[in-house]
């Protein structure tokens, strides 16, 4: 063990000094400013996101600003105290007996091959929640404007067979029946409702349902049925079909009595205090897409905050969090330090004097083994070791050392005296086994 005793620097590497603080001031300030700005944007988007982050465009949706959209109807219903929301999931959890589902301008078979099946499935989901449903049949196919993406440049009438297909699916009409027709006359005639109110309706051309026994006419005139009620078992939530969507569209809501009729459809006819505009059929379904929602505003800012927190935690975990211990001086561990350590160990044991006697006994055994002495009783071994010490010329009186150790064990332990005796034992053993150094 010479390397340890002499302080070999290869066995005692120095600990490097700390490179600097864990978090430097400039990155911390930058992260704090970024987090504050991100938090402010997140709060603002959550508070005003309904008007900032909604998808717009010329499509016939409750988001749309174009002539065929229903953004005006959405705002109108809220202005008269009817809570309006949008459904972009398949579960329709917000529906109930007093929350009506509004399906406006659903796609036809040209846009979606399973259009009729998807519409019926959505109506069945509303029925499962006990919610009334109002379906506004499609009428126009808008042509987007090249000047403004939120407007349309024109509109083409949808094929009547495709519109009739949706009406038959909701109203349970026979397949051979073609209940939807359009009147070319621009002259407006009042429509009579079952609650004995007349409504002026300005539609050109008017898209109406035929008066058939398969469904109940709710709002009609001599030309046809504007609002029909599907025949359902008693106690089932009602399902209504409005033949012409111009009543609720942006370009038609302000005409004639359209806004009043819309209000009565929701409150008087459906008995609802709130409505949910379905947007899943228009391609805005988001159900089951948690990862996509987390990466889309405003939730993306919350995701950024979480990732920033995780990054800081990983950073703090991979870098030393406490200052390094100072490096030990590369000095050697010499004889004096070794003796002092031995004395401290003897002092820590129970009975310092007795431990010193044990240390002396072990030293005698080590020297006897080195000299190849036979096994002898302690007094005889001490005499032989004293003679060998004299023969080797070691300046130590072993008999007097033994007497001093016995006297020290009998008296009160003196650390200074103990250290001096231990040094004598150590030096004697080294000179007898290794030689004078």
Key features of this structure:
437 residues, alpha/beta, two-stranded antiparallel sheet, 43% helix, 13 strands, rod-shaped, 14 helices, 9-stranded mixed β-sheet, single chain, disordered N terminus
How are the strands of the biggest sheet laid out side by side? 1-13-2-3-12-11-10-7-8
Radius of gyration: 49 Å
The overall pLDDT average reads 79
Helix content: 40-55%
Helix-and-strand structural type: alpha/beta
How much strand content do the residues show?
Answer: 5-15%
> Largest beta sheet, briefly?
9 strands, mixed
Chain-wise SSE layout:
Elements: H1 2-5, H2 25-52, H3 71-79, E1 83-87, E2 99-104, H4 115-128, E3 133-136, E4 140-144, E5 152-157, H5 160-171, E6 180-183, E7 190-193, E8 198-200, E9 206-209, E10 215-221, E11 224-230, E12 239-242, H6 258-269, E13 274-278, H7 280-284, H8 290-294, H9 299-318, H10 335-348, H11 352-370, H12 378-392, H13 398-410, H14 415-433
Parallel strand pairs: 1-13, 2-3, 2-13, 3-12
Antiparallel strand pairs: 4-5, 6-9, 7-8, 7-10, 10-11, 11-12
Explain what this protein looks like in three dimensions:
The protein is α/β, with parallel strands linked by helices and 437 residues long. The chain has 3 domains: 45 residues; 241 residues, no CATH class; 99 residues, no CATH class. The protein contains 14 helices and 13 strands. The strands form 3 sheets. It has a 9-stranded mixed sheet, sandwiched between helices. Helix 11 runs antiparallel to helix 13. The radius of gyration is 49 Å and the shape is rod-shaped.
């Amino acid at each position: 063990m010479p390397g340890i005793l002499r302080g070999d620097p290869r066995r005692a590497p120095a600990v490097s000094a700390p490179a600097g603080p864990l978090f430097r001031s400039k990155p911390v300030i930058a992260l704090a400013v970024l987090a504050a700005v991100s938090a402010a944007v997140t709060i603002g988007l959550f508070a005003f996101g309904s008007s900032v982050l909604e998808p717009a465009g010329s499509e016939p949706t409750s988001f749309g600003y174009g002539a065929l959209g229903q953004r005006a109807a959405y705002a109108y219903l809220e202005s008269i105290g009817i809570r309006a929301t949008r459904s972009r999931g398949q579960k329709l959890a917000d529906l109930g007996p007093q929350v009506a589902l509004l399906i406006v301008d659903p796609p036809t078979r040209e846009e979606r091959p399973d259009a009729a099946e998807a519409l019926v499935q959505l109506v069945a989901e509303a029925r499962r929640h006990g919610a009334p449903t109002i379906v506004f049949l499609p009428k126009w196919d808008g042509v987007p404007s090249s000047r403004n993406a939120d407007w349309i440049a024109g509109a083409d009438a949808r094929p009547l067979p495709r519109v009739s297909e949706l009406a038959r699916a909701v109203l349970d009409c026979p397949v051979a029946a073609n209940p939807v027709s359009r009147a070319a006359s621009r002259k407006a005639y009042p429509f009579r409702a079952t609650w004995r109110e007349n409504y002026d309706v300005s539609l050109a051309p008017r898209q109406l349902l035929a008066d058939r026994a398969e469904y109940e006419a709710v709002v009609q005139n001599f030309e046809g049925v504007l609002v029909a009620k599907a025949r359902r078992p008693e106690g089932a939530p009602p399902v209504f079909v409005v033949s012409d969507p111009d009543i609720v569209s942006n370009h038609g809501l302000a005409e004639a009595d359209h806004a009043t009729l819309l209000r009565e459809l929701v409150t008087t006819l459906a008995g609802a205090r709130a409505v949910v505009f379905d947007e899943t059929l228009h391609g805005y379904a988001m159900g089951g897409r948690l990862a996509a929602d987390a990466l889309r505003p405003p939730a993306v800012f919350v995701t950024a905050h979480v990732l920033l927190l995780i990054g800081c935690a990983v950073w703090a975990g991979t870098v030393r969090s406490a200052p390094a211990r100072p490096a030990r001086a590369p000095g050697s561990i010499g004889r004096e330090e070794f003796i002092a350590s031995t004395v401290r160990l003897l002092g820590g044991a129970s009975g310092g004097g007795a431990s010193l006697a044990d240390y002396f006994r072990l030293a005698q055994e080590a020297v006897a083994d080195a000299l190849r002495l036979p096994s002898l009783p302690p007094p005889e071994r001490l005499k032989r070791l004293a003679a060998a010490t004299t023969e080797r010329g070691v300046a130590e009186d072993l008999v007097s050392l033994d007497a001093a150790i016995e006297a020290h064990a009998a008296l009160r332990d003196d650390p200074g005296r103990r250290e001096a005796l231990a040094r004598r034992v150590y030096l004697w053993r080294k000179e007898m086994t290794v030689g004078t150094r």
